[in-house]
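Before the break, one more example. Copy the sequence into your notebook; we will annotate it together after we see the structure.
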Amino acid sequence: MQVTIPAATANLLKLIDAALSGEEVVIAKGRKPV
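Here is what the structure looks like once it is written out:
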């Protein structure tokens, strides 16, 4: 899953849970992964 920085900020706990369950989480600035 790829999310923007504002979306990651708003959903940080959900993203952490997703990452802990094995899902790949990529935070991107616009369309460029950071």
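Helices lie at 5-10, 12-20. Residues 2-33 form one domain. Try to locate both features in your own notes.
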